[in-house]
Design a protein that fits this description.
196 residues, alpha/beta, 5-stranded parallel beta sheet, 8 helices, 12% strand, globular, binds adenosine-5'-diphosphate
Length: 196
Amino acid sequence: MIALMFGPPGSGKGTQATHVALRLGVPHVAAGDMLRSEVARDTALGREAKPIMDAGGLVPDELVVRMINGRLNEPDAAGGVLLDGFPRTVPQAITLDAMLAARHENVHDVISLEVPDEELKSRILKRATTEGRSDDTAEGLTQRLIVYRQDTAPVLEHYREMGTRIEAINGVGDIDVITDRIIESLKENGVEVRGA
Ligand code: ADP
């Protein structure tokens, strides 16, 4: 089971992906978390990524692809993964599709969280006061939304054109309610989910 959690910055992708991955019984692979870990460990990749991330830009495809490819080759990913924050550009999606095709796999499902811009802004500015992420500033957010519309939204069109199943989920409401919406939508589409 290879699924993507898709949505704009602040849509709750990371939170929902954590819950949904448990129900699917696959690892949650979050590109942003992996990059922040590289930054925290002060690796060569982290040093290159940090200024780009802080400015709300995208880390070069080649670096992110190499990082994700390494992760997908780890043994726990053999039975599938829930990807969060990758692919974030059409070239990344095309590379992912090729990586998966090489192992006779493909993206089965895209979960697309829909949240209005005003709500995204208020959530991120609130997160800025609690989590202290260095990209959660008004300028960083504005730039991330521009990049999302320009570079990331076309990834959804890419999978729509490929005929991949897309679950459009209303991302406004309580965390548990949204998780239930996602699980119900997956079940309606015949995906096996653990628990009630
Ligand atoms: P958010 O969805 O709130 O923007 P993420 O944790 O998913 O947060 O990503 C944080 C930052 O990490 C992005 O703004 C970008 O700079 C970088 N990043 C994450 N995933 C990718 C990716 N697939 N390609 C390029 N850069 C990425």
